[in-house]
């Protein structure tokens, strides 16, 4: 399976990079995982609703440019469907079984994802009703992908 994580914004925190690198190393025996980091749109501290939409759409254009037509796209969005780790594992297992070997997870910038990206997404996934920094979501996501492969292989992993 080929998994791509398309994310907006540069990861600066060393501790997050180290955690992500650790899970990417662990995942390497299960799947090919790439992270594509896109620049976020520069914006002033206070924005009108129209300016927010414009920024999300500009970031969305860059995101969509990195997604192939045959990819199954899972957008991370607070309004998405919440799944347990077992349900995410089941989703990935079914995608692999039915020939969807390219899976793209999308993490938007600090303003979230634009309409065009949400329309392209095959599903929207929420990790919580809480808001997390998008940089931290990368670490949480790669850990959950790793956990999903362990679950699907029947291998032990801490609960």
UniProtKB/TrEMBL annotation:
GO CC annotation terms, alphabetical: cytoplasm
Residues reported in the UniProt entry to bind S-adenosyl-L-methionine: 76, 108, 127-132
Compartments in which it is found: Cytoplasm
Top enzyme category: transferase
Classification via InterPro entries: Alpha/beta_knot_MTases (IPR029028), RlmH-like (IPR003742), tRNA_m1G_MTases_N (IPR029026)
Catalytic activity of the protein: pseudouridine(1915) in 23S rRNA + S-adenosyl-L-methionine = N(3)-methylpseudouridine(1915) in 23S rRNA + S-adenosyl-L-homocysteine + H(+)
Pfam families with a match to the protein in the record: SPOUT_MTase (PF02590)
SUPFAM superfamilies, A to Z: alpha/beta knot
EC number: 2.1.1.177
Self-association and partners: Homodimer.
HAMAP family assigned to the protein according to its UniProt record, in alphabetical order: 23SrRNA_methyltr_H
Similarity field: Belongs to the RNA methyltransferase RlmH family.
PANTHER family: METHYLTRANSFERASE, RIBOSOMAL RNA LARGE SUBUNIT METHYLTRANSFERASE H
Record's protein name: Ribosomal RNA large subunit methyltransferase H
The organism of origin for this protein: Peribacillus glennii
